[in-house]
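Let's inspect a concrete specimen:
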Amino acid sequence: MKSHFLIITKKTLFCLVLSFYTASNFAASERNFLSGHKSPDSILPHIVLNQKWITYPPYADRSGWDALLSENKKMIISRGEKQLNYEWKVIKATDYFEYERSGNRNIMENPNSANSNALADLALAELAEGKGRFIDQIINGVFYQTERTSWVLSAHLPVQKSKRSLPSYTEQIIDLGSAELGAFLAWIYYFLHEEMDKTDPVVSQRLRDDIYRKIILPYRNNDRFWWQGFHPRGDGMVNNWNPWCNFNVLQCMLLLENDPEQLSKDIYRTMTSVDKFINYVHADGACEEGPSYWGHAAGKLYDYLQLLHRATNGNISLFGNEMIRNMGEYISRSYVGNNWVVNFADASAKFSANGGLIDRYGKAVNSEEMTRF
């Protein structure tokens, strides 16, 4: 009897494992909501060219910036003033090596973040004030960033062919850190390149070239970055890196590329990649990494889709798609009250999503559940 029970248990276990394996392998459904039935040629007529999709006022529109920033203007300028004497932090080769030597990534990431935050304070202060007072220090920050071999974080560099945590000058890869910094610098170029040119045009020319070299061209010419989803990993997973990186890469393209045919190819490539993420997610829209990852999974998908919507004058949009709405409402449906959520894996049990993001997403997909939440 005991052995019979064991046989049944083993058979049951086998069936459960087989069903799990089958479900896992068929998690990716070829919906292709973005790229299906479309092509670079078909989206070309809908692209808003030459950065005309941007609704922020240009740098010279002082009344526009005053209206936009309102009572926040003084605070933003004050933050920038604190960075006027900022000493730009050097990231040493040994700081990169430390990740493979001890597993410590903060020794590289802390100065990296400090430099980016300082530059953000300075750029916003200059946009707020508009007197050129912060330009020299902005140039220092931009010059520093363009002198770097790579913008990739040390913990993500071992995907290089060298397998080392020191950036190699022979190749450029794209990770969360480099894509985000690239997008940020592309906005600095858009708003401030004419002001920087008054000092020396080489600064903004170098910045533009560096964003192409480190972000746009590697994305355009490679399909080997795992997060793109073109060559799925062994487990088939396409996680939040996909919409997060694609959102930032698309910003770089839309802010710098003005050739219509090339831009249509670039945009379509991001659409094909983001489809890999959407295809992987189940139709109920649940975030497979848990609620605390929602902002960088469904939330970054929203950011990408909103940018695509704006850049195509609303002609390419998934905001009426039921699955996209389900992905948004997961954050409200996983909430159980008193600041707790139903969590799993390494997701926190405490609610942590950004209220403004939930509200914007909810308005885009017409979800009263999200906007009320």
Remarks:
- The longest strand covers residues 335-337.
- DSSP finds 15 helices and two strands in the chain.
- The longest helix spans residues 2-25.
- Residues 1-26 have pLDDT under 50 and may be disordered.
